[in-house]
Amino acid sequence: MSHSILFKNASVVFPHEVAEANVLVEDGKIVDVDAADTATASEVVEAGGLHLMPGVIDDQVHFREPGLTHKEDLLHASRACAAGGVTTFLEMPNTKPPAITREGVRAKEQLAATKSLVNYGFYIGATCENLTELQEADNLPGIKIFIGSSTGNLLVDRQSALERIFGETELPICAHCEDESTVQANAQRLAGESDVAVHSRIRNVEAAVTATRRSIDLALRHKHRFHVLHVSTGDELELLDNTQPYITAEVCPHHLFFNTDDYARLGSLVQMNPSIKSAEDNRRLWQGLIDGKIQVIATDHAPHTLDEKRQPYPSSPSGLPAVENSLGLMLDQVSAGNCSLTQVATWMSDAPARVWGIVGKGRIAAGYDADLVLVDMQREHTIRNDEQYTKSGWSPWHQTRLTGWPVATWVGGRCVFNREGFHESVRGSKPRFDHARGGYWATPDGIGTA
Fold first, then answer.
1. pLDDT category, 205, cuts 50, 70, 90?
2. With contact defined as beta carbons under 8 Å apart, do 413 and 25 qualify?
3. In a domain, 15, yes or no
4. DSSP character for 350?
5. Among residues 76, 217, 350, 422, which one has the fewest Cβ atoms lying within 10 Å of its Cβ?
């Protein structure tokens, strides 16, 4: 049955401006962004006083299914997405078993089709031996390489293997950039230190810069599209050029908001790979966003249970949950005057759609999918552990008070979360990835709606 929605009197966050408008949706697609007040629809959403934004695309999450579902799974994680205004996620391959074959990726897609309340995509993981799988994979967001070891056993540190992956595959590549030899040398030198703050000395600035420089060199020599995941240091910005072909980059909330001073307060709760760095790195990363050297904000949502995180270092695992709070954290920055709503929508919705060639998503425009979130910029919200929807049940931002918060989310024109709670019958779907037409620099106006 055909269904239409008229969002009336919303302050709509368009790609280049915020303007009051009526947005008409029919059968999951945006059909008019300047509808008349008299337009008819099956459902009318009175949005006066609220902002209508494109749904967030989080291009780096770890949802732990299959194999590690005691700490997260697709159902809980997708609820967290819906509550936080995230309408599409791209998930990493280091599950158990790792998604390093086309069959393994398809198995995860089948799980998501039955469980996920929001849209989904899954990277295929690179190893030193699976080049044929990487070459034959299609309609996926991209290839993930762990150039430094993190969680799992997907390290690809051999130069000959990296040359072949960059030189003989077509999908975009993203990488965890920490130089393994630097990390191991630091770990040996600092062995025996049990203060979790040593984590940032082991996984130091040099480790990040060395691996990022190596990856960018590979991408430029092979003319292969490459995305630098979770930039954590200001020095890495010197390697990024916002007019550089093939290269894009992202930053995560924990590298914007936490630094080494926070170990004293939060301990292993902010233990991450790459590690948190200095307050000066926070400042420089923010400036990198503003200057356009960094295009995307993503979370690297990587939950563990509190019991696991509270183990003494180095037994404590790296990673933290963030997917349901990332938009709220950025809306609070808008309220504080540090950025604009159009910038947030660009960093969290439009740019990731263009980087990964996701057709019809990332902005509010006629012909695009109706993946939408209403936000209340006046609403004050305090993040609390006992209110988290992630299965891990905690947040490093516990007791942080924010101004600005998502209040309702639509996926494909269907309301998946609002003040009534979750609409559990809604299921997301896999988008189409069109890398021939996609790419951040190749298509500055987006990849269209075909």
1. very high
2. yes
3. no
4. I
5. 217
Omega before 274 within 30 of 0, i.e. cis: yes
Residue numbers annotated as active site? 300
CATH at 151: 3.20.20.140
In a domain, residue 115? The reply is: yes
DSSP state of 403: E
What would the two tokens of residue 302 be?
């990587």
pLDDT surpassing 60 at residue 279: yes
Q: What is the pTM of this model?
A: 0.97
CA angle 122, 321, 64 (to 5 degrees): 40
Structural domain harbouring 90: 55-355
**How far apart, in Å, are the Cα atoms of 290 and each of 81, 189, 231, 347?**
25, 37, 14, 10
| The two structure tokens encoding residue 419 | 């003040």
First to last CA, the chain: 23
Residue 208 domain-assigned?
A: yes
Q: How many domains does the chain have?
A: 1
DSSP H stretches of helix in 336-447: 341-345, 351-355
Long-range contacts of 8-11 (CB under 8 A, 24+ apart): 8/37, 8/44, 8/45, 8/46, 8/47, 8/48, 9/46, 9/47, 9/48, 10/47, 10/48, 10/50, 10/51, 10/52, 10/374, 11/50, 11/51, 11/52
Q: What amino acid occupies position 265?
A: R
Give the span between the Cα atoms of 409 and 26, in whole angstroms.
Answer: 16
The average pLDDT across 331-347 equals: 98
Q: How far apart are CA 313 and CA 287, in angstroms?
A: 32
Q: Which residue has the higher pLDDT, 435 or 390?
A: 390
